[in-house]
Amino acid sequence: RDDVIGRSAFEFFAGEDLLTLHDELERRRDGSSSGYEIGLRRPDGSILPCFNHATPIYDIQGQRIGSVGLWTDLTQPKQAEYELRTYEVVANSITDAVSVIDETGTYRMVNDAWCRMSGRARDEAVGRRSEDLFPFVASEERQRERRLCLEQNAPRSIRAPLPSLGDGIFETTYYPYLGRDTRSVVIVTRDVTEQEASR
């Protein structure tokens, strides 16, 4: 606290963040409140990502005398956002079709290869049940393997045709995944028609 009190706020920001601070202080002079992201420069030169909710302060005569800021450290949310983006890049780089279905049969995630294979856009699938999206497609055998994957908490695999994808043979592996509040199955599907033909 002693290192901060009495110093200009401008000393704690640099580059684009300093410009953001100037813009936001102008808004306070106009009497408006706002929330914004900004990087706070630490003594060692590192930048701490923050969110500031700023509100003007007025004296008893109604004159603006400054502003109050409520600061939130965004380090963990930013790290989680970075990890999510990395995960999305990795998942969408995989040439196999990958999806995640929860216990109710609802899609929670699909990758780009899944969209290409199924002919469905991502927003058509996520949040919808597989049975509603592809009625009469999954065989009883595939449904059984998915169910056993959850019941036994162990990977299951099957090679068989997928009627919606023509006459080819597709290998599908089911992996159990335990999330925070639900159990899910990660489903990886690949076309093995050529492998089967060469046997």
Summary of the model, kept short:
With 199 residues, the protein is an alpha+beta fold.
In whole angstroms, the N-to-C terminal distance is 74 Å
Helix percent band: 25-40%
Order of helices and strands: HEEEHEEHHHHEEEH
- In the sheet with the most strands, the strands line up as 5-4-8-7-6
Number of DSSP helices? Answer: 7
Mind telling me the C-alpha Rg?
Answer: 27 Å
Shape: elongated
Strand tally = 8
Largest sheet descriptor: 5 strands, antiparallel
| Overall pLDDT metric | 88
In the predicted model, the low-confidence regions spanning at least 5 consecutive residues are none
Query: Proportion of β residues?
Result: 25-35%
Structural class: alpha+beta
Description:
With 199 residues, the chain is an alpha+beta fold. The protein is built from 7 helices and 8 strands. The strands form 2 sheets. The chain has a 5-stranded antiparallel sheet. The longest helix is centred in the middle third of the chain and has 19 residues, at 75-93. The model has no long low-confidence stretch (mean pLDDT 88).
